[in-house]
Design a protein that fits this description.
Length: 127
């Protein structure tokens, strides 16, 4: 069964750091574009970051550029999101997502381009 499982969320003070992990059940995800999205209560889910299958290309939303770093470890079939200098506005449920095929290489910011989703992990930044 295809499954993505996020972990690492929690409560952190503004200015602090947090590292999220996304473990994939399928080894084929090691070649797929992967992304992180986030959704605050009452708001639409928005793009945060994406990474190519090789891990050599990344894309970030302007709101997180310079503060967040997406990476992946294909040997562990895991994608990470390192979040530094956290702000209260970063508070949201963070979702890991995977595109459906390895040959679709665009680092899309559109949630409908991602076929597989994790259950989400809560990140709360207090001030």
């Amino acid at each position: 069964q295809v499954q993505l499982v996020e972990s690492g969320g929690g409560l952190v003070q503004a200015g602090g750091s947090l590292r999220l992990s996304c473990a994939a059940s399928e080894r084929t995800f090691s070649s797929n574009v992967m992304g992180w999205f986030r959704q605050a209560p009452g708001k639409e889910r928005e793009f945060a970051a994406a990474i190519s299958g090789s891990g050599t290309s990344t894309s970030y939303a302007d709101s997180v550029q310079g503060r967040f770093t997406i990476s992946r470890d294909s040997t562990k079939n895991t994608v990470y999101l390192q979040m530094n200098s956290l702000k209260p506005e970063d508070t949201a449920v963070y979702y890991c997502a995977a595109r459906s095929t390895y040959y679709t290489r665009t680092l899309s910011r559109m949630q409908n381009d991602y076929a597989y989703w994790g259950q989400g992990t809560q990140v709360t930044v207090s001030s």
